[in-house]
Design brief:
- The complex is a heterotrimer.
- Chain A is mostly helical.
- Chain A is built from 4 helices and no strands.
- The N and C termini of chain A lie far apart (about 60 Å).
- Chain B has 3 helices and no strands.
- In chain B, helix 1 (about 1-30) runs antiparallel to helix 2 (about 35-60) and helix 2 packs antiparallel against helix 3 (about 65-95).
- Chain B starts with a helix and ends in a 12-residue tail after the last helix.
- The chains are: A mainly alpha, B mainly alpha, C mainly alpha.
- Chains in contact: A-B, B-C.
- The interface of B and C includes residues 26, 31, 35, 45 and 49 of B.
């Protein structure tokens, strides 16, 4: 039964990777990578059960955390061009120019 | 009892897989950025929820099931945040959203 | 008081994730939880927003079951839309009024909107939230105000 779920998740991963490669704008790519990350978390968990090693769940938790941090970092980088400053100070700097 | 649990887990794992496939199909079919976000949220809610539910039926009451619940909570709290950040970035960037033809007011 | 409850929650989190109950690991759990609480106190993030434990039980017992029901209904609707041979979508972007007074309440409301498939909160300000919906129904349902009043009760 885990085989079916694994297969479905692999096909979904393929679909989101196709969208990530083809996506017309950068945001489409970021969104597709984000959903690919969610699918990968589920895939790691299901694969852990498929191979009888539920220890994989720890890896899934870490991957989920990295996924959200990565998406936010990418978006912030494309909007402001750096990761260090918070949004307000950058906007203030742009307004001063 | 084990039989019933196995059957329940089989049903929810398959349904979760099918909902993930539907979300993936939506990612390919939808015409613009915002509508693709809606398709992705099907994967993140019903797909993830049913898959984790199916694994919970298999693991029973143990530390494994606690970790599964943590993964589900993580997805449920993190995915709206990421979706909102993406949608707001698209709005700020000025991406036009798809409108039905003959409905451009 | 809130710091003590944060310490207990963090310690339980550590014990559940570790799964090995030897004196050294329990001791490191205590040390890490205490260090986290100390740092959080220094950063002044232990308040009703950073650690909303007093709302948590009400939210889990009353709001989550309703939210899960809504999520299932609208996810089925969106799946049906995706599976139709000809895409029948009519996306709208409109402002929806909200009645929450605190930032926490507004965040919960916007997150619930985004978590429900078919509606996305795009921008939020004091009195309203800009919602993108896959069809007209999503906006109509939000304007009925059921989710809004349930979230307001949580504050």
């Amino acid at each position: 039964m885990f085989e079916i779920a694994t297969l479905c998740l692999l096909v979904t991963l393929g679909a989101s990777l196709y969208r990530a490669i083809k996506g017309p704008t950068v945001l489409d790519t970021a969104q597709a990578v984000n959903s690919a990350g969610t699918v990968a978390v589920l895939l790691i968990a299901v694969y852990g059960f498929l191979s009888g090693r539920p220890d994989f769940l720890d890896l899934a938790i870490i991957y989920g955390l990295l996924n959200i941090v990565g998406t936010i970092a990418i978006l912030k980088f494309f909007r402001f061009g750096n990761l260090g400053d918070d949004g307000d100070s950058v906007q203030k700097a742009q307004a001063d120019d | 009892m084990t039989e019933i649990l196995n059957l329940a887990s089989w049903v929810s794992l398959s349904l979760g897989g099918i909902f993930c496939l539907i979300g993936g199909l939506g990612l390919l079919r939808m015409p613009d950025f915002f509508t693709r976000l809606h398709a992705a949220s099907v994967i993140e809610t019903l797909g993830a929820g049913l898959l984790i539910l199916g694994m919970l039926f298999q693991s029973g009451l143990s530390l494994t099931s606690v970790k599964l619940i943590f993964i589900l909570l993580l997805i449920f709290f993190a995915s709206p945040t990421a979706t909102h950040a993406l949608a707001r970035a698209a709005k700020v960037k000025g991406i036009k959203y798809f409108q039905k033809e003959g409905d451009n007011d | 008081m809130r710091a003590a409850s944060l310490f207990i929650v963090l310690l339980i989190f550590w014990l559940l994730l570790s799964g090995v109950y030897k004196p050294f690991l329990i001791g490191s759990g205590l040390a890490v939880a205490a260090a986290s609480v100390f740092l959080a106190r220094r950063m002044e993030v232990i308040d009703h927003e950073g650690h909303p434990i007093d709302h948590a039980f009400k939210a889990i017992l009353v709001y989550w079951p309703w939210l899960i029901k809504e999520i299932c209904i609208s996810a089925l609707k969106v799946s049906k839309t995706i599976l139709q041979p000809k895409l029948d979508i009519n996306p709208k972007m409109e402002l929806v009024e909200l009645s929450q007074k605190t930032d926490l309440g507004r965040t919960i409301f916007a997150n619930s909107i985004t978590l429900t498939p078919g509606t996305i909160a795009v921008e939020i300000n004091k009195n309203s939230v800009l919602v993108h919906a896959l069809s007209e129904d999503g906006i109509t349902d939000l304007n009925k105000g059921e989710m809004d009043s349930l979230v307001s009760k949580l504050e």
